[in-house]
Amino acid sequence: MKVKVINQSKHALPEYQTPLSAGLDLRANLEAPITLGSLERRLVGTGLYLELPTGFEAQIRPRSGLAFKHGLTVLNSPGTIDADYRGEIKVLLVNLSQDPFTIEDGERVAQMVIAKHEQITWESSESLSETERGAGGYGSTGKS
């Protein structure tokens, strides 16, 4: 699938890191490094603008290495970029560690996955079909 992109960053377009990768790594596009203190959150620009086809979204997700090693994650994970959005792609990052973390210009801060989606229409009803699980919620299918 081809996706129109405007790249106003100082960096090359995102690339898949391996032939079977689902996500493209997004890079911070910064004038100066940003330091996130413990529990601090910040929007980080990428300099990228997309035009997604109807029926697709871009999901912004954490990078596993940053999350594991430094506690840096995407706060509204996954963040959704709708097909009709034309603004800059920004990443809402939060530092969940106790230590400050500095984001440098060009650092890979998140990954973007393009996903197909459907829109629904509601069908009002007085009942739902029965299932083995029924109304069992959190933890209902795990160990007791």
Automatic annotation (TrEMBL):
Domain dUTPase-like: residue ranges: 12-142
Record's compositionally biased regions (Gly residues): 134-144
Listed GO MF terms: dUTP diphosphatase activity
Cofactor: Mg(2+)
Natural source organism: Belliella filtrata
Protein name: Deoxyuridine 5'-triphosphate nucleotidohydrolase
Keyword Iron-sulfur among record annotations: no
Residues that hold substrate according to the record: 63-65, 76, 80-82
Top enzyme category: hydrolase
Keywords, in A-Z order: Hydrolase, Magnesium, Metal-binding, Nucleotide metabolism
Family: Belongs to the dUTPase family.
Superkingdom field: Bacteria
NCBIfam families reported for this sequence: dut, PRK00601.1
Pathway listed: Pyrimidine metabolism; dUMP biosynthesis; dUMP from dCTP (dUTP route): step 2/2
Reactions catalysed according to its record: dUTP + H2O = dUMP + diphosphate + H(+)
Keyword Acetylation: no
EC numbers: 3.6.1.23
Xref: InterPro entries: dUTPase (IPR008181), dUTPase-like (IPR029054), dUTPase-like_sf (IPR036157), dUTPase_trimeric (IPR033704)
Role description: This enzyme is involved in nucleotide metabolism: it produces dUMP, the immediate precursor of thymidine nucleotides and it decreases the intracellular concentration of dUTP so that uracil cannot be incorporated into DNA.
Location of the region described as Disordered in the Swiss-Prot/TrEMBL record: 124-144
